[in-house]
Structures are given as C-alpha cells and as structure tokens.
Structure to design on (394 residues):
C-alpha cells in the first residue's frame, strides 16, 4: 500500500509499504477513504524526531470502510463505514469507564510514562502505524471504531476522529456559562471549531484571536468577534476587556500549544534538539522546559479573575515554568488533556446526522490526493494558500 512516512526533520514521503494484517483476534482492517492532516502532525514534522524512526507511518485522523475483521469481532462487518479515534482505547478498563479514554490503562505506554497509545504518533505514544495510508490495522474492533451512517460525505464525519471531540472537550473544560464569553487563542482547526461549538452551545460572546488574515476572515464569516494580534499588539488585553464588560472573558481556550509565536530562545532550543543524537534529544525534550509559552501566558493575562483556562494545544516541555503566583492570585481553574474521543461521541454525532450546524461538511480548505502529502505538510506549516484544514484521499 501507499503511506505517508517520516524520514527526518521536514522530510516526509509517500512510500510503498507492506499492507497491514490481522494480528489479534479483535482487529479490523480499514480501507481509508479520507484522512486528515493535524496541527500536531507538524510537531513530528519539526521537533519530535528523536521519538520517530525512518519509515514510521504518520496520521491519526482517518475514516473508511471495514475491509476485514478478526474472528472475535461481532460489532462490525466488512463494508461498514467507520471513523477511527486518534487515541487507542480498549473501552473496558477503569479509565475508559470514567470517560478518560486518552488515559486507557490497557494501552498506556509505561516505558515513557504516558497515557493511551495514539495512531501515528511517536514512541512516546506507542509507535503505532498511522492513518495517512491506504489501509489501517485497528485494534479493539468491537469498541474502538465509531460506526457512522452511509449517505453524507466523509467530510461530515471524518472530524469525529480528532477535531470535533478535541474542540468539544476544549469548550466543555472551559465551562463557559450560558450567555457568557470566551476568548479562543489560535484559529487553526481546533480553535476555529472551538469557536463554532462555543457559539452553538450558547456562549454570548466568542472572541477569536489570531494573526493569519485568512483564518480571521474565516471565523468572522461565522459571526465570531475576531482580533488580529498584529494590529492589537500590546493592547490585546484592553481590546478583549472592551468586549467583555471590562473584566476579561469567563474562559480562555488555548488552541495554540507549542506552535505559538513566542520566545526566540525557546524556538532555538527546540531547533537544537533536532541536531542532537536521538538519545540526547529525547532526554532534553522529556526533561527540559523548551516550549514557547506566549499563548498560555496570554491566556492567563486575558481571563477574568475566577475564570477558567482550557488548554487543547499540545505542549511538549516537561519543566515549563508557569506564573503560579499570578494563577493563584487570580484564582484560576486550569483544565487540559488529550481529547477523550468516545466520551463525546453521543453529544456530537447527532449534530452530523441531523443537519450540520457546525459546518463540518465545508470545514476543509484543501482536499488532496495522499501522493501530495509532502507538499501539503510544507504548505500547512508555512500557513500558505489559506490552509486551515487539509484532507487526503488515499
């Protein structure tokens, strides 16, 4: 089969690799019909090479048609249409029963002390082959795949793999009161969808903050108040407070993470790790505080006293400094974590089958053959051609 594989910093290629096969009795093989390019894939493209091997298959936002099922699979049959959550969860352990599928005890990566394994996402999360490929082996065939109806196009459902549950959880964790206000930092796929979900769920004022003109305009067309960081400069806090009764928003969603535009020193430290031998680079990434934290610091500054910060953007440094005195003084609540995909399926799926109020079907800015994936990674990283969400057709 053809698959998008990692070969080094900013070097991904579409190669011919062996087809996946049934290994465990409850495996299924899915023929991928649509698969997404995620902002966190850019972390692998840029700075997390120490935890990858040449030839690793990337991608964690797939959907498709069941091709083959293991002998113990009773919930699916060949021909069923399914979306595959990005976190690999058994559905039966203590953590899964708590709705914390991203912490699944069956697939936790104990070697690195991390949570549930993820498709296509480094040794830190199990080094499981990903979904930017023609076929994907999916474990836990009776509980992990999300069966979706025939009819509407893939673009309606594919975001159940990551974007929709991640944004839904970001809004849920933000605890925006009915009619309250929320600021969203970063209008990439997660930030954009978080704005849509917050508005759909009854937020009174939703403020989208970014510096890419196309992303700001895209949010503005959905009725979101937008602020351009470049125009606001140091007056961003004043501009946000002017929209929120002078005290700041009830909640701030940080949908940026370590892709933030911030400290040059931190950016240089990230770059250095890509030049070190893998063993040293891995140790530095796991132990050093090297993230660019400007987005998180901005969230702490913007949110009103007693408010909530919801972090959906991925950070990678293990010792990042936080302004705990300010956070304590403002009496802030901070919630974060990988999305627990299955926890939110029952809330989201009706919005995809009964109309499309979140605009999922038109959410992608680019739909490309998988063979063009290397160019798409570069385009997405450089924020060229208005790229917000890219879908591949294997």
């Amino acid at each position: 089969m053809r698959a998008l594989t990692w070969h080094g910093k900013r070097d991904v290629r579409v190669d011919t690799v062996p087809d996946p096969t049934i290994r465990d009795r409850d495996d299924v093989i899915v023929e991928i019909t649509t698969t997404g390019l995620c902002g966190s894939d850019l972390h692998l493209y840029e700075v997390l090479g120490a935890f990858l091997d040449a030839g690793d298959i990337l991608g964690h936002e797939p959907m498709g048609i069941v091709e083959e099922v293991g002998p113990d699979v009773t919930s699916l049959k060949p021909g069923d249409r399914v979306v595959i959550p990005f976190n690999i969860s058994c559905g039966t352990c203590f953590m899964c029963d708590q709705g914390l599928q991203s912490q699944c005890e069956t697939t936790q990566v104990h070697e690195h002390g991390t949570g549930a394994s993820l498709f296509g996402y480094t040794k830190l999360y199990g080094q499981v082959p990903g979904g930017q490929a023609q076929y994907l082996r999916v474990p836990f065939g009776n509980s992990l795949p999300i069966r979706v109806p025939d009819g509407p196009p893939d673009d309606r459902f594919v975001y159940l793999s990551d974007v929709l549950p991640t944004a839904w959880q970001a809004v849920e964790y933000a605890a925006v009161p009915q009619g309250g206000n929320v600021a969203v930092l970063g209008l990439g796929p997660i930030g954009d969808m978080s704005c849509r979900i917050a508005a759909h769920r009854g937020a009174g004022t939703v403020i989208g903050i970014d510096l890419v003109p196309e992303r700001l305009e895209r949010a503005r067309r959905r009725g979101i108040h937008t602020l351009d960081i470049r125009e606001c400069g140091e007056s961003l806090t004043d501009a946000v407070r002017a929209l929120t009764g002078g005290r700041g928003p009830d909640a701030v969603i940080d949908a940026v993470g370590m892709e933030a535009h911030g400290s040059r020193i931190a950016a240089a430290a990230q770059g250095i790790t890509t030049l070190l031998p893998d063993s040293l680079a891995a140790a530095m990434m796991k132990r050093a505080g090297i993230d660019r934290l400007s987005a998180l610091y901005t969230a702490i500054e913007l949110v009103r006293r007693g408010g909530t910060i919801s972090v959906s953007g991925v950070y990678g440094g293990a010792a990042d400094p936080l302004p705990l005195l300010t956070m304590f003084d403002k009496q802030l609540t901070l919630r974060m974590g990988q999305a627990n995909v299955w926890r939110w399926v029952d809330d989201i799926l009706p919005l995809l089958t009964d109309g499309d109020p979140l605009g999922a079907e038109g959410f992608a800015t680019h739909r490309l053959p998988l063979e063009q994936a290397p160019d798409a990674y570069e385009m997405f990283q450089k924020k060229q051609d208005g790229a917000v969400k890219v879908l591949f057709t294997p």
